[in-house]
């Protein structure tokens, strides 16, 4: 078991944004977290990482209560893109090297093995030839991959990614999916927030839906496809019913009214 949440509520200050979240992620699973804007997906990720308030429930990481986990570096985090701001003046290699800090300590010095790991991480994400490039000059998709490489350099057992495909065009989504697929083969567990499943869909073992602060679905991609079909069907037939009602109202409403009027007129002495 890599991540286990039991009836967890997370929020900011006293306010719970995500409530009663129960979720288990096992070794080697690739779990996507989907849902509308503002539903609480990032709050769930941050909750797992201990970056916001846990108001109730429990979080167990690698079998121990989260606050007792010493090796935080076992959790790799790829935040949303805007956290790598345009004002950062650093090369891809320098950014990726900061991923070693949790392992060597803030005062530690990079050794040859650390440098090798940095180079290998850049290679895994297909950016070996951009090591010396300033990150602000890279494309959005390339910046995403730099952030993934930074997380990888920490040799995490689980990668928690917030919108890795945001702002990445279709072609580069496939490049990214290939990168993630390589990681999957290396046994990395992943929890990925995404707006659209897109190119990642083929890698997933599970899909979790968060809606208005609750986990409303948790199942395999096949179960998700069935559930989605049902939701669409329900939505369509509901829509259809409403359309029928509207038609009937249009067909009969005004007529009924005029009948009534006529009858009223006719009823007049
Ligand atoms: N640091 C914060 N302090 C206070 N409230 C916050 C904070 N971060 C998020 N929220 C609130 O929590 C709610 C859920 O936000 P969250 O970022 O978890 O949603 P999300 O599903 O990831 O959305 P999106 O798809 O837009 O990224 C929102 O109402 C948001 O305003």
From TrEMBL:
Superkingdom, natural source: Bacteria
Pfam family, one: ABC_tran
Sequence ranges assigned to domain ABC transporter in this UniProt record: 3-237
Keyword terms, alphabetized: ATP-binding, Nucleotide-binding, Transport
Any GO molecular function: ATP binding
InterPro entries noted in UniProt: AAA+_ATPase, ABC_transporter-like_ATP-bd, ABC_transporter-like_CS, Metal_Ion_Import_ABC, P-loop_NTPase
Recorded family membership: Belongs to the ABC transporter superfamily.
Name of this chain's protein: Metal ABC transporter ATP-binding protein
